[in-house]
């Protein structure tokens, strides 16, 4: 993997981490509001999980486990 590929992955990783934080804040705000739509909450949590899975995959590409 070249340096430009690594850089692109790092940029995507940073964007995904920010989006994950934003979704986390949205989920917390909805739950604190007390009038959270269950379906909306479920969708946000599902999206958050998908982003987390992508983050883990990118981290594995960028930082492979040396001991494996």
TrEMBL record:
Residues 6-61 form a coiled coil. It comes from Roseibium limicola. Keywords: Coiled coil. Gene3D superfamilies: 6.10.280.50. The lineage of its organism: Bacteria, Pseudomonadati, Pseudomonadota, Alphaproteobacteria, Hyphomicrobiales. InterPro entries: DUF465, DUF465_sf. This is DUF465 domain-containing protein. Pfam families: DUF465.
